[in-house]
Design brief:
The complex is a heterotetramer of chains A (206), B (243), C (218) and D (52). Chain C has 218 residues and is mainly alpha-helical. Helix content of chain C is 83%, strand content 0%. Chain C has one domain. The chains are: A alpha/beta (206), B mainly alpha (243), C mainly alpha (218), D mainly alpha (52).
Chain lengths: 206, 243, 218, 52
């Protein structure tokens, strides 16, 4: 499970969000909403451990998190199988068969990833998430630039993941097609900047 | 209670340097002018090097500062990496162009001096080579600062570069020594090998060294003030955009 | 870890991976130098150690920006940084892959180019040995430079400016081994120093590279 | 007033002129940039004051 307490994070040296708290139990999904630039990506990267938090705590071992941005880290010159086997080896999981099956990629396993259609690529990206074997998925804009069918596929995969006791933390500004997910609007957590020249230590810059 | 680290507060730094900078600047001009005028007009010619000996009053202080500035940048970078005081990182940033200029002065005065003495503008002598390499390190450091938008990322990356660069600069120095035993006289304070430098030269030389140190300090304070303002300006603009 | 190495090697060897570019550059340089300097064997023999070392160094430099840039663009680097492998190990493996695809082929082809440049017969052993000892340092130092400039626009030129000064000690000692070998002098000292620099760089620089990579990914 | 520099007049005076010139140029740029940054910052700060 994941619990976030009083998290504050910054982008480019400026505090962006503060006092963000939420918890996620097994089988739950949480969607972060908010206008562009409100700090969704920053929050996700902080939770994933890519950047340090200004304050607060993220109580999930980083060992439980699989992070994915909209770039999937797929290598075009490697085949579907090679791509997945690589990530399986990195995460120390065995067997990519289940992921191939679930994403209906078995027939494409030996095709180079650069020859896949956009939807197939997306399926490969999702298969990568399954291959990691991690319970907590942290997804940044997972459905951006996808057609309706792919969005539905994405919803089905996340649902299956949740049904197996997984968790998902997602950021988006469009509809994900996951009505059962809880929604957290980040707008109220916008960090209040100190008054200019208030005499704080390094806040003198702000 | 009044800890040294308080000066790492940008506001306090600005307040203190507000009155300190003019004093340092005036002192820098006075001391440097005294030393150089003394050296240029009122020192005898050396019996072997003739009037060229007067170049020592520029060459040695500049060369000394070229190294000292890098050491100062190294210390400032370490302070930034360990204690994360922004003023420290900005001071390192402000120091680099001064160090670059000092290195350049050292190289140019050396060439102008070397021409009549050794009959060549340039020699691949370990000392000269080391300074040329130091010049490249300064260039790289400044270029890296200039290439990065985010101020904290820039501070972090340049600080690591400064650390790693220092190790390699020292290695290069030994490599250059190993590679070619040179023409350059050994100790910087003896004009001729074996004989001690006369006080007639030493006194103005020390004055010039102090003067160059003060010039560096004045420019450093001025530059750091500018960098603090620029940093604040950037933060304000970013803040405006976010609001 | 081995999976990462295999993946990087595969990527380098497949179409568009850029394998062989450094090698071709090294070859072209060895052809251009006699054309510029003149065919005099004595002159060429004199400058051969330096040319071969400078050529190897530039050929290494040429492929450095591929180490992280592609992985950064397609998001793999973010994923690797959040994966259960230490970033220090990732950086080391990347440097190793770079060495295997760039440094090692340079070492293997260098005797042929030595032939073109009339390198004295005594020097071949030292040429191969010094390149074998020195090119790993070039890869590791270059990985640091690549990590330092990974997120930057126009990072390639800047990286050259940052990396080349760091290459100086390796170049000096490496070329010194070969030219001493060519003159039949003792090579122990520069060889030991070269090995020392490589050992130090391989042992310590990955930590700096991982540190700057983390900063760049923030 | 000007000391007799003998055969090295050119070298010595060149060294002095170039060195002082470089320091002067550097100082001038530091001053120039300092002034422009100071002015820009002042503009932003007063702008902020007006907008609340």
């Amino acid at each position: 499970m994941l619990s976030v307490q009083g998290l504050a994070c910054a982008r480019g040296g400026l505090p962006l969000l503060e006092g963000v708290s939420f918890a996620l139990q097994a089988g739950q999904a949480l969607v972060l909403r908010g206008p562009n630039g409100c700090g969704k990506t920053t929050l996700l990267r902080t939770v994933a451990g890519l950047q340090p938090a200004l304050a607060g705590e993220v109580s999930a071992s980083t060992d439980s998190i699989a992070y994915a941005a909209h770039a999937d880290g797929i290598k075009g010159t490697l085949s579907v199988r090679e791509n997945l086997e690589f990530w399986a080896a990195i995460y120390g999981t065995r067997g990519i068969g289940a992921a191939l099956e679930q994403m209906n990629l078995r027939a494409l396993a030996d095709r180079a990833a650069q020859n896949l259609s956009a939807g197939q690529k997306r399926r490969l990206g999702l298969a990568r998430l399954i291959v990691t074997g991690r319970p907590l998925w942290v997804l940044d804009e997972p459905t951006v630039s996808l057609d309706a069918a792919s969005v539905a596929l994405f919803g089905a995969v996340v649902r299956a993941h949740l049904a197996q006791g997984g968790m998902a933390l997602m950021a988006t500004h469009i509809d994900l097609g996951l009505p059962e997910a809880a929604i957290l609007d980040l707008t109220p957590y916008k960090a209040r900047l100190p008054e200019p020249g208030a005499g704080g230590f390094d806040e003198a810059f702000l | 209670m009044a800890s040294f680290w308080e000066y790492a507060n940008p506001l306090k730094f600005m307040r203190v340097t507000d009155w300190l900078l003019p004093i340092v600047a005036v002192a820098a001009v006075v001391v440097t002018a005294t030393g150089l005028i003394w050296g240029f007009f009122f020192t005898p010619d050396d019996f072997r090097q003739g009037a060229t000996v007067k170049i020592v009053f520029l060459h040695v202080p500049a060369a000394m500062m070229a190294i000292n500035v890098w050491v100062m940048m190294l210390v400032a970078s370490l302070i930034w990496l360990i204690r994360r005081h922004h003023v420290s990182a900005l001071a390192a940033k402000a120091a680099a162009p001064i160090g670059l200029t000092m290195t350049l002065i050292g190289l140019i005065t050396g060439a102008v001096w070397g021409q009549p003495m050794w009959g060549t503008w340039w020699a691949w002598d370990p000392r000269l080579t080391s300074f040329l390499i130091l010049f490249l390190f300064y260039l790289g450091y400044i270029a890296l600062w200039a290439a990065i938008d985010d101020p904290d990322t820039g501070a972090d990356l340049t600080a690591v570069l400064c650390l790693v660069g220092s190790v390699f600069a020292v290695l290069s120095r030994y490599a250059a020594l190993f590679w070619n035993q040179g023409l350059h006289q050994g100790a910087s304070l003896s004009v001729q090998p074996g004989t001690r430098m006369d006080w007639a030269y030493k006194a103005p030389l020390y004055t010039c060294m102090l003067g160059f140190g003060l010039v560096f300090l004045a420019l450093l304070l001025a530059g750091t003030r500018t960098e603090i303002r620029a940093r604040r300006m950037k933060a304000l603009v970013a803040r405006e955009r976010m609001a | 870890m081995i999976a990462l190495l295999i993946r990087d090697l595969r990527l380098a060897l497949r179409a568009g991976g850029g394998f062989g570019l450094g090698l071709a550059f090294f070859l072209i340089l060895a052809v251009l130098v006699p054309l510029g300097v003149g065919p005099e064997p004595a002159t060429l023999a004199l400058i051969a150690p330096g040319i071969l070392w400078v050529g190897a160094l530039l050929a290494c430099l040429l492929s450095l920006d591929r180490i992280f840039a592609l992985d950064f663009e397609d998001g793999s680097l973010d994923l690797l940084a959040t994966a259960p492998v230490p970033l220090e190990a990732v950086v080391t493996i990347k440097a190793l892959a770079h060495w295997l695809t760039t440094g090692l082929p340079l070492v293997l082809i260098s005797p042929v180019l030595g032939l073109l440049l009339f390198l004295p017969a005594d020097a071949y052993l030292w040429l191969i040995l010094s390149l074998l000892l020195g090119t790993p340092a070039l890869s590791v130092i270059g990985t640091f430079g690549a990590a330092l400039t990974v997120g930057l626009k126009r990072g390639g030129l800047l990286m050259s400016l940052l990396v080349l000064p760091l290459y100086i000690p390796t170049l000096v000692f490496g070329a010194e081994v070969v030219s001493r070998g060519a003159q039949g002098l003792a090579v122990n000292t520069p060889l030991a120093l070269l090995a020392g620099i490589t050992a130090g760089a391989v042992a310590l620089l990955p930590f700096a590279s991982a540190l700057v990579l983390r900063i760049n990914l923030r | 007033m000007i000391p007799d520099l003998g055969r090295y007049t050119l070298e010595v005076s060149l060294a002095y002129v170039v060195s002082l010139g470089l320091i002067g140029v550097l100082a001038f740029f530091y001053w120039l940039r300092g002034r422009s940054v100071k002015r820009q910052l002042a503009e932003i700060e007063t702008g902020r004051g007006k907008n609340g």
